[in-house]
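Thread title: Can someone regenerate the structure for this chain?

I was given the following input by a collaborator and told the matching structure tokens would be attached. They weren't. Posting the sequence so someone can regenerate them.
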Amino acid sequence: MELKDYQKYRWFYTSSEKLVVGGKNADQNEDLIRKMKSLKEDKLIMHTQMPGSPFSFILAPISEIKKSDIKETAIFTASFSRAWREGKSNANIDIFNLSQLYKSTTMKQGTWGVKGKIKRMSAPISLVLAEQKKKLRAVPEQSVSKGKILIKIAPGKIDKSQMLSKLKSILKKYSDEDIMSALPSGGVKII
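Best answer:
Regenerated them for you:
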């Protein structure tokens, strides 16, 4: 399955080269879920237990998904959720299949219900900045080899826009826009 416009969403590649895509906001979550449902292929999805999270899809057949893909996607989902903005160190992640999602007419944009069994896990909130597919990405550390890590980041008290000059001094080849769009919303600290 190929999602040609995946770069307009949050995305990264796992260590086993599986593409993971998640919405940046409620509108993108809605758009992404509707797009995925129209393809009629079941996919594994993750979302935090609390609102304010991407619906993150692993774009691979469910039978080919490894434990490492699940762990990396959980970290990605947790790190791009409200939990990062709130400065938490981990978040609880719900794991389910696309076929379990339903939408009633009373649900607001970006909100979906899940029927059936949901798996749960706790995921740490921490990312690294690295290059994937020639783009600067904030990704789980496990998804890139050690030599490719540019900076390790975690939730912090300094807003990402105020941290930009410090990040730019390390990430010289990337534009301000590249850096800002790679980072989660909220405060950032370099670790």
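The chain is about 25% helix and 30% strand.
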